[in-house]
Amino acid sequence: MKFRILALEAxxxxxxxxxxxxxxxxxxxxxxxxxxxxxxxxxxxLVGGRTPANNIIGAxxxxxxxxxxxxxxxxLTDGPAGVRISPTHKGDSRTxxxxxxxxxxxxxxxxxxxxxxxxGKAIGEEVLEYGCDVLLAPGMNIQRTPLCxxxxxxxxxxxxxxxxxxxxxxxxxxxxxxxxxxxxxxANSQETNRTEVDEVISQRALREIYLKGFELAVKEANPWxxxxxxxxxxGVWTQSSQPLLTTxxxxxxxxxxxxxxxxxGGRTSYDRIIAGNDLLEPGYNEQEQDLIDNVKNGKLSMDIxxxxxxxxxxxxxxxxxxxGYKYSGTPDLKxxxxxxxxxxxxxxxxxxxxxxxxxxxxxxxxxxxxVTSYNFIAGGTxxxxxxxxxxxxxxxxxxxxxxxxxxxxxxxxxxYKDFNERVRKVNGRWVRTDELRVSRQAIERQAASNDLxxxxxxRQAGEGRDRTIDNDFNLTNDERDMLNDIxxxxxxxxxxxVVILNMGxxxxxxxxxxxxxxxxxxxxxxxxxxxxxxxxxxxKQNPSGKLTMTFPIMVSDVPxxxxxxxxxxxxxxxxxxxxxxxxxxxxxxxYVGYRYFSTFNKPVSxxxxxxxxxxTFAYSKPIVKASKNGFDANIAVKNTGGxxxxxxxxxxxxxxxxxxxxxxxxxxxxxxxxxxxxxxSQTLQFHVxxxxxxxxxxxxxxxxxxxxxxxxxxxxxIADIRATASYTNPKAFAQQVNDVLKPDRSISxxxx
Length: 752
Ligand code: GLC
Description:
- By secondary structure, this protein is of the alpha/beta class.
- It is 28% helix and 21% strand.
- The strands form 11 sheets. Strands 3-4-7-8-10-13 form a 6-stranded mixed β-sheet. A 6-stranded mixed β-sheet has the order 14-21-20-19-15-16, sandwiched between helices.
- Strand 15 (365-369), helix 14 (394-400) and strand 16 (404-405) form a beta-alpha-beta unit.
- Helix 5 (113-129) runs antiparallel to helix 13.
- The chain is globular.
- The chain starts with a helix and ends in a 16-residue tail after the last strand.
- 56% of the residues are buried.
- Bound molecules: alpha-D-glucopyranose.
- Alpha-D-glucopyranose is lined by residues 60, 78, 136, 183, 262-263, 383.
């Protein structure tokens, strides 16, 4: 009874005018509100609203309102490439299409955090003006192998690139006063069996590769929320892992925001709240009851519940919805379309350009091959897809640029194209079933009557399923035969062939890349994709994108692929479950991507950091100076070619030999010039702090950087060293951390 009176008193505050006032949530009365909440209401706040309680239909989720205390429901919407809501609402004549921006991989390949921040700003404006409060993005898991279905949403095989891009994106989105959710924390490295698989990872690989990007993003950008992933980690669900969600994320990294789960049901709830989640999404009735029951039986302390409730109220009071923002429903889609065109152009990577085939010269008539040319793939599938108003395909982009597309060939594809047929669901997954096999005679006729051949190879992938090797990572037989026939026919006429890769992931390139005259990786470039490709082919834009992942010669060259679910077959099965399905051993350890290929001297098709330009750049002698914490460096880059362009300089460091094995070199910083006119120079500045030179010593449970001489490289790509210097670390560095998240199975990481 006493408790009820207290709650009532708390409710009826006496205002300055002497009259009783209803207690309502404010930014500065959260403690009071917590006192006034009943246990049922607290459970409400920790479990998602089954469907968005507001009129933003099609958003992924929401929190629950407590109207009596002025606590609104806030809206959570996907995704990394743009706002994902239903474009039409019953009874509303307006439309709610959002801009389809380039996928995460394409953003990262710009190597331009400033540009990525601008994209974040634009997406954040659409979140705000479409009445949402938190964007469930960026996706930033490490691209451990080329076969993960969601790589398109992610940034890189390298944690510095991933963390830097994620931080830029978060700052941009949150500059609108809306939130983000960096995801999926942590090590959601495969889609196969993603809600059950146990990702088994050494502490060192976890710290240096899988956690490092999230650490950077948390410390640099302070995202409003973090999304705990579906998978297990070393035997424990990440969502139930207190060492992960509290000891590391909050105690070590100082994170003060909210943690929400990925969209999972079925698990116990109280332990996920104890571990460090503040919100269980999407929310189920039994979850609230589970919390209430476990408070009553003592398993879940009211202190922890109140801590989580305070965090949720702290999130809610920041939201536009709480602030009563009157959203317009009309963000500046035109400006955002222009931005996505510019951004996707800057993320495209020129892989081959023999005899300066590009930019196009004396080309008017184009033979446009490939089903994807006429149905360009703007983004990946699943929650990372965006309901866009349009997609500019390559045919349209080239036509817009003044080129003439061969009508006969176009008609052939248009008749064939019923893309609902050609791009159809196989085993629940959108795949491009096959290429149109144009006859050799038809190709020869094309070569006789047109100036150039363009052949687009497309791939689609997405959430919930990983890629296969045949007909996905590797070319299909039809694609290979078509490429062969096209090159033979056009080269016989002294004409050239350009291949466009339209995909969100890596494919096999070594066996065929010498056949065409130019190869452009267009990624999944968003809704303006066709125009962006045309901007590059015509020279309107000079390509400046570089790869943020390695293109292996064969997928089996990637060590992690030995521990990856190839297709749905699993490698072996024992009492511990199915290898690569129920548990995946990250036996490659820290040797992911270039860390492996450069350290083990394995050849690749295209290196990490590689990308061609229409111009050339010279690097000056670098200056490296010790600072009070690490070192500062600068280097001048000069455009020594004939056209304006941008250059990204990558700074790699090789540590002195020490007790720990290490990659030969690791990326520690990077910087991109602005557009340099021919002859123009720009000096790029870098800072590398001592902590980022450190490696993780499992025995000591500490980050350690040896005293001694560190070699410093300034590279155009990891394989293209342009300048070197060195830095002497005056004294050994060590930073102790908690000895947590040990693997639950023995795992033998590879060593050089
Ligand atoms: C999905 C995804 C996550 C997404 C969420 C809401 O399963 O894993 O990235 O934000 O559910 O749609």
